[in-house]
Amino acid sequence: MPDLGKKLPGRPIEPRTASNTLRLFISFLVFYILLIFYARARCFRDPGSAFFDPWTAYDLSYSSVRIGQGDSYIESFNNETTANTKSSSEPDLCIGIASVARYGVGYFQSTVGTVLEGLSNTERADIHLILFIAHTDPSEHPSYEEPWLHELADQVLLYDPAEVDIDHVRSLETDAAKAFGREKGLFDYTYLLKACEAVNAPYTMILEDDVVAMDGWYHRTIGALASAEQQTRALGASKWLYLRLFYTEEFFGWNSEDWPIFLSYSILAVCLVACACSGARQCQPRLHSRLSTRTIFMFSGICTPLLIGLFFAAGRVSMVPIQQGVHQMPRFGCCSQAFVFPRSRVPDLVDLYQSKHIGYVDTITEEFADAENEIRWAVTPIIMQHAGRRSSKGVNKDTNTLLRHKSKGELSEVEKLWNFGFELNDADALRSEHKFFSGGSV
């Protein structure tokens, strides 16, 4: 009689095969759990991730360091311990910052401080800085009477009664008008653009008054502009609309319009795993007992879908990062915190905003760019950060303290204007890089 304890050729013993499949699945589960813990540790800053942690992701890291540097610069200037340099007669960059008084908080000083702190004399001379106090009565702004405002700016811009209807602008400052704010914001942006256009600099940068500029922002911006110009020529185009220095990763998740592509690749991955296992079993008979039909089904039908699910759960920004350098961003770029425009495009934008009269700058700009198929550039890593949870809309007006949020859903849209990658910057590394590009004069 045959020995039933021996394995017959081509006929694997089912209990042994099942046991092998079970051991492989348990090993996979252990590996999978470890991957989940790794993803939790690495993806908590990705707003499109299932592991996103709003308790810590919105906390300031590099921003707090940079804000401290900017505030110290303003303070040292007020104490007359810092010498001031002004713009040359032919600057390459006009920077315009409009500011209005905010309830309980103020970012204007920090914004100006981070823009100017660390600049070499040569870099500062290449910039014409316009600080726009957007009040019909400028004394309403807490910074208007402070010495740094007038000494650090190349131009303090106020409403000129010869150019604007002061009574109409005053009507836009009422509480009822501020509740919407779409007209005055667009009016101020246009007014500031025209002021920069008069400087005749090749490029105009418009910043909101609640941004943080990284150390070395100037040389990175100049490099990005050169790249944008070169890439535009390579495309056979003669013009581009803007260079974006800030965007939030909030809108770069697994967008629904791309799901047919994602699903196709997922199905393809499952099929490839199944085919690879089946092919290996056919080419290597000794693998027949290890790659049983049940084991192949486990790998392709259970393990692979679980890994695909974890891939998507980790978040798009984590798994498919936005490419570094200057690249086109025709979709999902938000918002208007920091734009650079070629001077040649400023008249087009002024005409556009004046024709619209009411609306949000970013929305109007994007609608125009979509209609005209305009080239829009963005730089990664970003160069400017938004105030985020430091926004005045995230302040408890009763206690005048920053609110602590328990979930992402409790954050306002303004508070979610945040670039999480910006906070990973290293202050010492950025300062060293800045010194290198400025010839060590920082």
Could you characterize the architecture of this molecule?
- The chain is α/β, with parallel strands linked by helices and 442 residues long.
- It folds into two domains: 57-250 and 336-437, Spore Coat Polysaccharide Biosynthesis Protein SpsA, Chain A; 254-314.
- The chain has helices at residues 14-42, 54-57, 62-78, 108-116, 121-125, 147-152, 166-171, 175-178, 182-197, 217-234, 259-283, 293-314, 316-319, 346-356, 361-372, 427-437; strands at 93-99, 127-133, 155-157, 203-207, 211-213, 242-244, 325-328, 338-342, 376-380, 384-386, 395-396, 401-402.
- The protein has an eight-stranded mixed sheet, sandwiched between helices. The chain has a two-stranded antiparallel ribbon with strand order 5-10. A two-stranded antiparallel sheet has the order 11-12.
- Helix 1 (14-42) runs parallel beside helix 12 (293-314) and helix 11 packs antiparallel against helix 12 (293-314).
- 33% of the residues are buried.
- Residues 1-13 and 392-403 have low confidence and may be disordered.
- The chain crosses the membrane at residues 21-39, 259-279, 291-314.
- It comes from Penicillium arizonense.
- One of its GO terms (cellular component) is Golgi membrane.
